[in-house]
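Hi R.,

Here's the chain you asked about this morning:
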Amino acid sequence: MANGIKFQHFQYIKSGRKGVFDKIQNHEPYIFDFLKFEPPKDQRLIDAGVTDVLMSFDRQRKKILHTGLIRIDFNLYIGNNLNGKGKKDFIIVYYHHNTQILHFFYFPDRNPKNKSKFSTDVLKKHLFNNN
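And here is the predicted structure, written out as C-alpha coordinates:
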Protein backbone atom coordinates (compact mmCIF):
# COMPACT_ATOMS: atom_id res chain seq x y z
CA MET A 1 0.00 0.00 0.00
CA ALA A 2 1.33 3.43 -0.91
CA ASN A 3 2.43 5.63 1.97
CA GLY A 4 0.81 8.78 0.58
CA ILE A 5 -2.80 7.72 1.14
CA LYS A 6 -4.71 10.36 3.08
CA PHE A 7 -7.14 9.27 5.73
CA GLN A 8 -8.47 10.16 9.14
CA HIS A 9 -8.63 7.80 12.12
CA PHE A 10 -11.17 8.38 14.88
CA GLN A 11 -11.95 6.38 18.00
CA TYR A 12 -15.39 5.95 19.50
CA ILE A 13 -16.51 4.17 22.65
CA LYS A 14 -19.66 2.17 23.20
CA SER A 15 -22.44 4.28 24.68
CA GLY A 16 -25.20 3.34 27.08
CA ARG A 17 -27.62 3.95 24.20
CA LYS A 18 -28.31 0.89 22.08
CA GLY A 19 -26.25 0.79 18.89
CA VAL A 20 -24.54 4.13 19.57
CA PHE A 21 -20.83 4.90 19.88
CA ASP A 22 -19.72 8.29 21.16
CA LYS A 23 -16.53 10.09 20.24
CA ILE A 24 -13.65 9.85 22.66
CA GLN A 25 -12.83 13.38 23.71
CA ASN A 26 -9.45 14.70 22.64
CA HIS A 27 -7.88 17.73 20.99
CA GLU A 28 -8.71 16.83 17.39
CA PRO A 29 -12.09 17.59 15.84
CA TYR A 30 -14.18 14.63 14.76
CA ILE A 31 -16.11 14.50 11.48
CA PHE A 32 -18.95 12.70 13.27
CA ASP A 33 -19.84 13.29 16.93
CA PHE A 34 -21.35 9.82 17.22
CA LEU A 35 -21.97 6.69 15.17
CA LYS A 36 -25.26 4.82 15.21
CA PHE A 37 -25.61 1.21 14.11
CA GLU A 38 -28.85 -0.48 13.09
CA PRO A 39 -29.60 -3.78 11.39
CA PRO A 40 -30.44 -3.40 7.69
CA LYS A 41 -34.13 -3.36 6.85
CA ASP A 42 -33.94 -3.13 3.06
CA GLN A 43 -33.81 -6.57 1.44
CA ARG A 44 -31.43 -5.30 -1.27
CA LEU A 45 -28.89 -4.40 1.43
CA ILE A 46 -29.30 -7.77 3.13
CA ASP A 47 -28.85 -9.56 -0.22
CA ALA A 48 -25.67 -7.51 -0.81
CA GLY A 49 -24.14 -8.80 2.44
CA VAL A 50 -24.74 -5.72 4.59
CA THR A 51 -24.69 -6.68 8.28
CA ASP A 52 -25.16 -3.20 9.76
CA VAL A 53 -26.26 0.23 8.62
CA LEU A 54 -24.05 3.00 10.00
CA MET A 55 -25.35 6.56 10.36
CA SER A 56 -24.53 9.90 11.91
CA PHE A 57 -26.28 13.26 12.00
CA ASP A 58 -25.16 16.85 12.41
CA ARG A 59 -26.51 19.20 15.09
CA GLN A 60 -29.45 20.17 12.84
CA ARG A 61 -30.38 16.46 12.62
CA LYS A 62 -29.32 16.24 8.97
CA LYS A 63 -27.93 12.82 8.03
CA ILE A 64 -24.23 13.26 7.17
CA LEU A 65 -23.19 9.61 7.18
CA HIS A 66 -25.12 6.66 5.83
CA THR A 67 -23.55 3.41 4.73
CA GLY A 68 -24.21 -0.28 4.70
CA LEU A 69 -21.33 -2.11 6.35
CA ILE A 70 -20.12 -5.44 5.04
CA ARG A 71 -18.27 -7.71 7.45
CA ILE A 72 -14.95 -8.95 6.07
CA ASP A 73 -13.66 -10.46 9.32
CA PHE A 74 -14.95 -11.11 12.84
CA ASN A 75 -14.76 -7.45 13.93
CA LEU A 76 -13.76 -5.70 10.70
CA TYR A 77 -16.26 -3.96 8.41
CA ILE A 78 -16.10 -1.84 5.26
CA GLY A 79 -18.44 0.65 3.65
CA ASN A 80 -18.73 3.78 1.51
CA ASN A 81 -20.18 7.21 2.08
CA LEU A 82 -21.24 9.49 -0.77
CA ASN A 83 -19.59 12.86 -0.18
CA GLY A 84 -20.71 16.35 -1.19
CA LYS A 85 -18.78 16.12 -4.48
CA GLY A 86 -20.73 13.01 -5.55
CA LYS A 87 -17.71 10.74 -4.99
CA LYS A 88 -17.40 7.81 -2.62
CA ASP A 89 -15.39 7.96 0.57
CA PHE A 90 -14.13 4.57 1.79
CA ILE A 91 -14.72 3.55 5.41
CA ILE A 92 -13.09 0.89 7.57
CA VAL A 93 -14.59 0.05 10.95
CA TYR A 94 -12.73 -2.12 13.45
CA TYR A 95 -14.31 -2.91 16.81
CA HIS A 96 -12.25 -4.12 19.77
CA HIS A 97 -14.71 -6.03 21.97
CA ASN A 98 -12.60 -6.05 25.17
CA THR A 99 -12.04 -2.29 25.27
CA GLN A 100 -15.36 -1.49 23.55
CA ILE A 101 -13.47 0.97 21.36
CA LEU A 102 -14.44 1.33 17.74
CA HIS A 103 -11.78 2.48 15.27
CA PHE A 104 -13.18 4.42 12.33
CA PHE A 105 -10.91 5.00 9.33
CA TYR A 106 -12.17 7.53 6.77
CA PHE A 107 -10.60 7.79 3.28
CA PRO A 108 -11.98 10.79 1.34
CA ASP A 109 -12.46 10.32 -2.42
CA ARG A 110 -11.19 6.74 -2.27
CA ASN A 111 -12.75 3.52 -3.54
CA PRO A 112 -10.10 0.76 -3.58
CA LYS A 113 -10.50 -2.14 -5.99
CA ASN A 114 -9.49 -4.85 -3.50
CA LYS A 115 -11.27 -3.50 -0.44
CA SER A 116 -10.52 -6.49 1.78
CA LYS A 117 -6.74 -6.41 1.18
CA PHE A 118 -6.65 -2.63 1.43
CA SER A 119 -8.46 -2.79 4.78
CA THR A 120 -6.23 -5.45 6.32
CA ASP A 121 -3.13 -3.59 5.10
CA VAL A 122 -4.34 -0.37 6.74
CA LEU A 123 -5.00 -2.13 10.05
CA LYS A 124 -1.64 -3.88 10.02
CA LYS A 125 0.21 -0.65 9.34
CA HIS A 126 -1.73 1.90 11.37
CA LEU A 127 -3.38 -0.04 14.19
CA PHE A 128 -1.28 -3.11 14.82
CA ASN A 129 2.05 -1.59 13.64
CA ASN A 130 3.05 -4.64 11.62
CA ASN A 131 5.02 -3.58 8.54
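One quick note: The CA atoms of residues 1 and 122 lie 8 Å apart.

Cheers,
M.
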